[in-house]
């Protein structure tokens, strides 16, 4: 994958679809999980919880369970022919510890399914794109506080899953950081995870040809600078067609973050649109990755060529 290309779209969900909830990263609060499951049931879906979702690693309490157990949960859910979609319960940290333990041949043979998550799940979005060639959804997670408390986030994810033709245009709340229009294929996620993926055996070689979506949470400006500079120095941003910027929650005041983003990204000579409302923020939108689209930074819109799901 020398440049970002359109990927296979899984089928949209229908009432009664079985949705497996997995926890590839951090520990999951039971009350929030129960609330999220109720939301999914309210949509007419049939959520099932993987065995280790409420687990906790014996030594590292920031992990939901051991690496082998987290990998087994994800692989079993994906390879179960009765499962139509896999939704992550939350992010945190842990995907990088288990992603190379997955049987990617078996998962490819299981066929395309819907996959949803964000934050640490960025590492799985990249792996699903490179190793399975599948469109995935960067969106709210089943036990996320931002999901269970936000009608807007719920409505947008529900529409993307069940009626994707109704959400082909996403609208920004901000002004263009760099004006202009660009076409490309969507990709991206959490900046720090994309930077950490460089040099790993199956990493995407570049964002060439893509519309790159970036966001992060709880990072000081110098750390965001380091990650952006790493992507620039590695040549990973060479040939990118445009950038969409999401939330920078719990980072330093946005004015300083914005100055950094303009400094590091403004010289690429491509449109850059900010405040697109995805990532670690209230009322987060769901953004499909692997879909051809047009970015109009002046209008603050991302318009998909076709619905995210087939």
From TrEMBL:
Signal sequence extent: none
Domain LD-carboxypeptidase N-terminal: 19-139
BP terms from Gene Ontology: proteolysis
Annotated coiled-coil segments of the chain: none
Gene3D superfamilies for this protein: Class I glutamine amidotransferase-like, LD-carboxypeptidase A C-terminal domain-like
Residues spanning the membrane: none
Residues of the active site: 119 (nucleophile), 215 (charge relay system), 280 (charge relay system)
Similarity comment text for this entry: Belongs to the peptidase S66 family.
Entry protein name: Carboxypeptidase
Taxonomic source organism: Streptomyces pilosus
């Amino acid at each position: 994958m020398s440049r970002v290309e359109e990927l296979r779209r899984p089928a949209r969900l229908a009432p009664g679809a079985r949705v497996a909830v997995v926890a590839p990263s951090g520990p999951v609060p039971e009350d929030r999980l129960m609330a999220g499951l109720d939301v999914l049931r309210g949509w007419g879906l049939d959520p099932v919880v993987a065995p280790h979702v409420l687990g906790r690693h014996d030594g590292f309490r920031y992990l939901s369970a051991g690496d082998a157990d987290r990998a087994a949960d994800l692989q079993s859910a994906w390879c179960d022919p009765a499962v139509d979609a896999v939704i992550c319960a939350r992010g945190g940290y842990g995907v990088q510890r288990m992603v190379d333990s997955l049987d990617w041949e078996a998962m490819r043979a299981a066929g395309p399914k819907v996959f949803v998550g964000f934050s640490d799940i960025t590492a799985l979005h990249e792996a699903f794109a490179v190793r399975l060639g599948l469109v995935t959804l960067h969106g709210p997670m089943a036990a996320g506080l931002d999901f269970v408390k936000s009608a807007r986030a719920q409505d947008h994810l529900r529409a993307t899953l069940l009626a994707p033709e109704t959400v082909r245009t996403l609208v920004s709340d901000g002004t263009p950081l760099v004006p202009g229009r660009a076409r490309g294929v969507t990709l991206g996620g959490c900046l720090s995870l994309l930077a950490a993926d460089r040099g790993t055996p199956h990493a995407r070689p570049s964002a060439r040809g893509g519309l790159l979506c970036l966001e992060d949470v709880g990072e000081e400006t110098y750390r965001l600078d380091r990650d952006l500079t790493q992507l620039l120095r590695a040549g990973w941003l060479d040939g990118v067609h445009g950038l969409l910027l999401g939330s920078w929650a719990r980072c330093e005041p946005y004015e300083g973050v914005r100055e950094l983003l303009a400094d590091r990204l403004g010289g690429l000579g491509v449109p850059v649109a900010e405040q697109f409302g995805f990532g670690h923020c209230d009322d987060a939108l769901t953004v499909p990755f692997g879909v051809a689209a047009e970015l109009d930074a002046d209008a603050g819109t991302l318009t998909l060529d076709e619905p995210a799901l087939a």
